[in-house]
Design a protein that fits this description.
10 strands, alpha+beta, 7-stranded antiparallel sheet, Protein Transport Mog1p, Chain A, 3-stranded antiparallel sheet, about 170 residues
């Protein structure tokens, strides 16, 4: 059995998604890593997925629109010590707006010396369940919001990638 597992190990390691695209934000004040599989979302796809909502600062997607990373410089004032309260507010809002939301994880952690809040949850789209991962940080006293989502069948692979994106946040 161990030999069989070793034979398949190279296959799994090639399937691993790498964070090999550097994204700089806010005049190079913030840097994250993302996979090259995500590219700029077309206006047509934005309209299909997010209708008439204002486009975020960064909107990336895979070619099928099944995996998305949005980054929004909200200009909402927030201090690092307020991120826990913001997290609780977002969880409450999610649950009030949508009965289908199931919280999968939440917390506050230090990433490269900065406080980052996060919420993982599932929700129902029109035709299937979606894994959502919100994470947020205070930059220059303003909320920088990251929203990652993918269809549920891709969650096993892409949740680890999203964790890596969060862990790659660097603020200069």
């Amino acid at each position: 059995m161990k030999l069989l597992a070793l034979l398949f190990l190279p296959i799994f390691s090639f399937a691993q998604i790498k964070l090999d695209k550097k994204i700089s934000l806010l005049n190079n004040k913030v840097e994250i890593l993302a996979p090259k599989e995500l590219s700029n979302m077309t206006d047509e796809l934005w309209h299909i997925k997010y209708h008439n909502n204002p486009r975020t600062t960064v909107a990336l997607s895979d070619e099928n629109g099944e995996i998305n990373l949005l980054i929004d410089d909200t200009q909402q004032p927030v201090a690092p010590y307020q991120l826990g309260d913001y997290k609780e507010f977002e969880i409450k809002s999610l649950k009030e707006k949508r009965r289908d939301v199931k919280i999968l994880g939440q917390g506050i952690k230090k990433v490269n010396g900065r406080t980052v809040g996060f919420i993982k949850f599932s929700s129902q789209a029109s035709d299937q369940n979606v894994f959502n991962f919100l994470f947020f940080v205070s930059v220059n006293g303003k909320l920088l919001l990251f929203s990652f989502n993918c269809i549920e069948k891709l969650q096993i692979t892409w949740e680890k990638v999203a964790d890596g994106i969060l862990d790659s946040i660097k603020i200069k």
